User: Fold these one by one.
Assistant:
Number 1:
Amino acid sequence: MSGYLVLEGGAEFGGAMAEPDRRALVLAGGYGVPVRIIPTAAAPDQNDERAGHNGVRWFRHLGATDVQSLKLIDEPSAADPAVAQELAQAKLIYLLGGFPHFLAQTLNGSAAWSAVLAAYEQGAVIAGSSAGAMVLCQYYFDPSGGRVIEGLNLIPNACVLPHHNTFGQRWVPQLTELLPHALLLGIDERTGIINDGEEGTWTVYGEGEVVVYQGGEKTVYKNGDHFLTGGKSSTP
């Protein structure tokens, strides 16, 4: 049985994401399970160590006892068997924000990503914030090039717009043209969704809103609301 997915809109370690992150820990098996952080998206601007440290500090603050940020910063480290082994044994895997295209290109087809998929199939929770959430979908938007790119596809026919309450909403007109049949998930900062409801429905956690765009319609969801995107996706 596959595990759960967590998508967060950004500003993840500022103290406002305790509710979804604690829920993720519970779904993963409790506060003693292995939590492994992937800081890859922060590597292009040499921010991976600081971002990874912030993630470790945050989850320890929540009560997690086995937390590590992995040195997964490029294609060679994504091929490292030791890194892959850590991911395969993890119960909560968290992809940090940063540069989505670099993150997707580094993970795609790698031993590290194969290990993430194996962990997910064994029930692990896979979480991503901002760029980390973007690449988990079938599509992600590369704002630097103004193009849509195939993601890692844990959520078919979907595209996340993070930081929706700040700059993410500005992508909507372009993405509705580029992806007219896809589900666009606008997720505010300090807000997350987890597919932990009945039959894989998504639950909204946090202080902001989640705006779903599809077929020319716009639906707003808030903390505690549930919605369906087709349920849990199986690993491609």
Number 2:
Amino acid sequence: MRISRRKILYGMGAGAITGAALPSLAASYLYGVAPAAGAGAAGRPIRFDRNENPYGPPESAMAAMRENLGRANRYPDVGRALEAKIAAFHKVKPEQVLLGCGSSEILRMTADAFLHPGRKLVTATPSFPLLDFYARDNGAEVVDVPLTGDRAHDLKAMLARCDGSTGLVHICNPNNPTGTLTVRQEIEDFLRKLPPSIPVIIDEAYHHYVSPSAPYASFIDRPIGDSRVIVARTFSKIYALAGLRIGYAVASAEMAEKIGASWLQFSVNALAIQAAMAALEDIEHLQRNAAANAEQRQEFLKQAKARGMNTIESQTNFALLQVDRSIDDIMAHFRKSNLLVGPHFPGIDGFLRVSFGRPEEMVAFWRVWDTLPRKA
């Protein structure tokens, strides 16, 4: 019987602590740009560049962290209690859940399992690029397939690019950086036609922000019993725990075992585990934040329209704003007022991605926007 590295590490009480490092090239896409020197003199910058939840963690999560601070001298457990809670929440078995240092580690482990020299990643562009970096770092080829005209995944074209060398297909739904959806039925049709040997990871980081009326359904909430499907989720967005770095995958037990082979011991810290357990149960916080985001999304579209500007309809906590000038110039202008926007994403030239803030923060955004020098 094969004993996985993940199971061995589960049974260890101590060991070297390692981190889930990100490829340096991906950093600007993930985390935006740091404030210029002196930019924080008047206080912390207002960030419209990281797709963070501006309302902060639920009080229940903060209380859980306070209660466990006294145990900071102890190494964290391996998260079995949280895995069990996530499993119960999603009505799956605990062995189908895999924790990670943010969903970024889930993507890294999946790349390690399926992408290496001679293998290909088939993905959309523009889309969340982190898995692309992991694939290239492993020596795999990345096949970028442009989105459709309405900025959905072009699944017909992606299917055409899949062959015997395809190691993995990546679908980010809702998609970052466009904020758009790919219809659930189209993904199901794609899976039926896809060769049975090719696994698919569906990144649902922005799942909770989708309007209930949208033609969308999660592959966790409505599983199809396909053992090739891996669904990645994060506590960084609606749960507002981005700084704690915790995410998870739901897959078949066999798939979770395979991608967990490169799981890093202690990659999820003790306070993150406790905070996530509390946040998962705080449905009121989730609903309140989703509603607040929906209001700010509508207000953003209203303000853009009032200025004669076009936007891409979004189902997330950010939107694309069509601009007539350099993204770098806009970023520099906002930085003077200690507001951070951007970054520039390849494949969306002429659009600025704007993360939604609190109402007063969005007032500040438009105030600074209205002081942009007129284009000559």
